[in-house]
Design brief:
19 helices; alpha/beta; 14 strands; 8-stranded mixed sheet; elongated; 449 residues; binds nicotinamide-adenine-dinucleotide
């Protein structure tokens, strides 16, 4: 099938590359000419494992092309995917739909043959119906339908998630739209992937409800971790103990620095706003978002408490800047909250990230960029493990200790076992672990104030 993809960010690039790998003929369009020039010279603008090879293979096979000419991208396409950004609007946190409707206007003028416009961007309830109404208004003569096809991929595992999803959700209310979507995803029938057909509004709610539920799981376990710290329990054992119950499940029960990224923070807030507009409060989602925001604000207090209440004239090494491993995405990363607060409190900062330093340099300033974790540890009073990249999972802790000036290891991902850390003479400050509160709650409270 001839398919156009509008927007070549994390979702658009993965969608275009995977659909072409399924055998479809894909033209991906972006209004950002620099990005398209990069892609056409074989450079991949983002870090996503396996994406470079997948793109190269399909470009070479003639199934995938990139362009800035929308006429070419849309010409003859039976399906047009919208994969543009829907960031939080400044001020009220609602999803900003300007890119979606900008793309809709541009597409409408170019419709020549029957087309299904498929919204992959995460958009609030009612948006797909508005898109359909706008297309019909602009082009009453065109045979155009709309489908909502929210994306559930995880950055860092995006290709696998796209090709082997748990399910595909399709909001489609016409036979034309359903048939086109079935044909697009036919290759998934080999794995018997469930394809769930719903109306437009239901598909939109599924996406937000899924993200809100996962975000709630993270905030829940983070609050339980706080409790474990106060009462001397071990949150990892608690997570295992509850996660083995199949009604709960073990995923998304890792206590840590709070969720970030391009989806959970903005989608929870957008869902809260959607509910408010509908005259409702989603109090559980509100609490999950609030807990998470507070958690990120309070991260610096953990480091301050680990260094006996003051960061004056200290050096802190931060390992991991991206919001999670295997991506260079810095959107809403905990590091963006932590580092400025540490600097404000008087610390000088040394940082390392395996793939995210180029992107991080656009947001983080006045730090020393290091070549690796050991370089970052040199002369540090505290090492903070902030993102659980594989490269930090088997550090030679004795070497880290020798390189440091101090001995605090603030392990915000619980990568290391307390006894391993103690064995090399480092002081371990994990999250919600151990038979004693790892950080004195009093000191944590004082530092937060
Ligand atoms: N990143 C994720 O993990 C993820 C997962 C699921 C869903 N989503 C959703 O998918 C959507 C896209 O997210 P993303 O992370 O890929 O965004 P992104 O910011 O990485 O990419 C968006 C791209 O759209 C382009 N664009 C904007 N307006 C355009 C227009 N009018 N015409 C052509 N191109 C245009 C931008 O130049 C940019 O390259 C969002 O709604 C997001 O919530 C993202």
């Amino acid at each position: 099938m001839r398919i156009a993809v509008i927007g070549t960010g994390y979702v658009g690039l993965v969608t275009g590359a995977c659909l072409s790998d399924f055998g479809h003929e894909v033209v991906a369009f972006d209004k950002d000419e620099r990005k398209i020039a990069q892609l056409n010279s074989g450079e991949i603008p983002i870090y996503e494992p396996g994406l470079g090879d997948l793109i190269a293979r399909n470009v070479a096979a003639g199934r995938l092309a990139f362009g800035t000419d929308l006429d070419v991208a849309v010409a003859g396409a039976e399906a047009i995917f919208l994969a543009v950004g829907t960031p939080a609007r400044r001020g009220d946190g609602r999803a900003d739909l300007q890119f979606v409707f900008e793309a809709v206007e541009a597409i409408a003028a170019r419709l020549r043959s029957p087309t299904v416009v498929i919204c992959k961007s995460t958009v609030p309830v009612g948006t797909n119906r508005r898109v359909l109404a706008r297309l019909r208004q602009l082009r009453p003569d065109a045979a155009v339908e709309v489908a909502s096809n929210p994306e559930f991929l995880r950055e860092g595992a995006a290709i696998d998630d796209f090709k082997r999803p748990d399910r595909v959700v399709v909001g489609a209310e016409s036979a034309q739209a359903r048939e086109v979507l079935k044909a697009i995803y036919r290759p998934l029938s080999l794995n018997e992937t469930p394809i769930l057909f719903t109306d437009l509004e239901t598909a939109e709610v599924i996406k937000y409800a899924a993200n809100a539920f996962l975000a709630t799981k993270i905030s829940f376990i983070n609050e339980v971790a706080d409790l474990c710290e106060r009462v001397g329990a071990n949150v990892q054992d608690v997570a295992r103990g509850i996660g083995l119950d199949r009604r709960i499940g073990s995923k998304f029960l890792h206590a840590g620095p709070g969720y970030g990224g391009s989806c959970f923070p903005k989608d929870t807030v957008a869902l809260i706003e959607t509910a408010r507009e509908a005259g409702l409060r989603l109090r559980i989602v509100e609490a999950a978002a609030e807990t998470n925001a507070e958690r990120k604000e309070n991260l610096a207090a953990r480091v301050i408490a680990a260094l006996h209440g003051s960061l004056k004239d200290t050096k802190v090494a931060v390992l991991g800047l991206t919001f999670k491993p295997n991506t260079d995405d810095m959107r809403e990363a905990p590091s963006l909250k932590l580092i400025p607060k540490l600097q404000e409190a008087g610390a000088s900062i040394r940082v390392h990230d395996p793939e995210g330093m180029r992107e991080a340099a656009r947001h983080i300033h006045d730090v020393e960029w290091c070549d690796g974790p050991y370089h970052a540890a040199e002369g540090a009073d505290a090492v903070v493990l902030l993102t659980e990249w594989d490269a930090y999972r088997a550090l030679d802790l004795a070497r880290v200790k020798r390189l440091m000036r101090g001995k605090a290891l603030v392990d915000l991902r619980n990568i290391y076992k307390p006894h391993e850390v103690a064995a090399v003479g480092l002081d371990h400050f994990p999250v919600g672990l151990g038979g004693r509160p790892p950080i004195d709650p009093e000191r944590l409270r004082e530092a937060a104030e």
